[in-house]
């Protein structure tokens, strides 16, 4: 992760992936989806890891 790039919220990832926020929560509960970490009560995503996860999906298809 870039030293100055902020972590993404669930809403940020939802907009980036074009999926509902509810889907991201379901993926986390199932252990699916992009890597996520919990900071207090909030879920946060490393943008580089989200992009890598998307790249891995397209390579596997």
Automatic annotation (TrEMBL):
InterPro entries: DNA-bd_dom_put_sf (IPR009061), HTH_17 (IPR041657), WH-like_DNA-bd_sf (IPR036388). It comes from the Bacteria. Residues 9-55 form the Helix-turn-helix domain. Transmembrane segments: none annotated. It holds the Pfam family HTH_17. This is Helix-turn-helix domain-containing protein.
């Amino acid at each position: 992760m870039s030293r100055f790039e902020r972590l993404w919220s669930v809403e940020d990832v939802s907009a980036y992936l074009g999926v509902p926020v509810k889907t991201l929560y379901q993926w986390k509960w199932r252990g699916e989806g992009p890597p996520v970490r919990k900071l207090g009560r909030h879920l946060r995503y490393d943008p580089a890891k989200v992009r890598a996860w998307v790249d891995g999906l397209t390579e596997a298809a």
